[in-house]
Specification:
alpha/beta, disordered C terminus
Length: 326
């Protein structure tokens, strides 16, 4: 069990992000690819990704075997988001840190020959790893990244609403069955044990479909990142039950309302780039299908997802893959 000690400054610096760290999701997807658990992305994701891996992209599979503590330098915290910025941070990791984290993850005798060269600071090996990370992201995630991003936006928004409605304690006490909050300690059943005092660095919560239990990523001078299991972004559920709802515009309505928690008709129209009358028409169709509720407050109408809409957005069919418009 890992115990994270949170002081006042840590509690004030809690953030919930939509899991859009490209490198973190790439590394976690590589570990999920090697595992035998539930398929994180329905469909032939595992065989398709394995078939696409060539050359240096296979290096990542050596580095992140399932059931091991990930080397934290592979999941950097960067203030400038994006794949290339994160790759630059990985490439600049000190040899001392790489050596220490590889030994912690793999022991004094790494199972593959190139890892000692990485631990020794060989530049050509690091360049090959950076190339492999980029290629693995392209092979495993590039064609699902847009949909995955929208899905994780909704997951993060759901946690944010919990914090808004029930406070920090309500959020920390409801994250996952393997996470327990007894002030000032957040206990996490994960791959490692020990006590970590964050001392004002803060904590970030990030959903990912590539983990089946919570994971904790820690760097000395950055916030701790707790990766939370997210529901799968897609399912094989039939769309036949709600054929009149689907189409890109109405799908966007569900995603926007789910991400914000509540939107007025005017705000929907502005975000969608359609007239207020058109936005109202789409909302009426979704309300008739039981996916949203609408409440008039003075001169404005406010829309929110129903429990069915929440379940559909979090674990139901793709909302952006249908052809045509609503």
């Amino acid at each position: 069990m890992l115990r994270l000690w949170l002081d006042y400054e840590d509690l004030a610096r809690i953030r919930i992000i939509p899991g859009l760290s490209p490198i973190a999701q790439t590394v976690l997807s590589a570990q999920a690819l090697r595992g035998t658990g539930p398929v994180p992305v329905p469909g032939p994701w595992r065989p398709r990704t394995r078939a696409r891996l060539t050359g240096s992209s296979r290096l990542l599979l050596d580095l992140v075997p399932p059931g091991r503590w990930l080397p934290d330098f592979l999941t950097p915290y960067t203030r400038v988001p994006g794949l290339e910025a994160e790759l630059d941070t990985v490439a600049s990791t000190s040899v001392r840190r790489i050596r220490a984290e590889l030994e912690r993850s793999h022991g004094p005798r790494p199972p593959v020959s190139w890892l000692p060269r990485l631990a020794a600071g060989e530049r050509e090996t690091m360049r090959a790893l950076i190339c492999g990370l980029r290629d693995f992201h392209r092979a495993a995630l590039a064609d699902v990244w847009s949909e995955l991003s929208a899905h994780l936006d909704a997951e993060a928004a759901s946690h944010a609403r919990t914090m808004a409605d029930h406070g920090v304690g309500g959020l920390l006490g409801s994250l996952h069955a393997a996470i327990r909050w007894t002030s000032p300690v957040l206990e996490v059943d994960t791959l490692c044990d020990g006590d970590v005092r964050l001392q004002g660095r803060g904590i970030v919560f990030m959903p990912s479909p590539f983990v089946t239990g919570p994971r904790v990523l820690i760097a000395e001078d950055s916030p701790a990142t707790v990766v939370l299991p997210a529901s799968r972004p897609l399912s094989g559920t039939s769309h036949a039950a709600l054929p009149q709802v689907f189409g890109r515009t109405r799908a966007a309505v569900i995603q926007l309302v789910g991400a914000d928690g509540e939107l007025t008709t005017g705000a929907l129209a502005a975000r969608l780039g359609v007239s207020a009358a058109s936005a109202s028409q789409h909302a009426t169709a979704l309300r008739g299908a039981g996916l949203i509720t609408s409440e008039r407050r003075g001169k404005t109408v406010h829309h929110a997802l129903t429990p069915l809409g929440e379940r559909f957005l979090r674990g139901g069919p793709s909302l952006t893959s249908r052809e045509g418009r609503g």
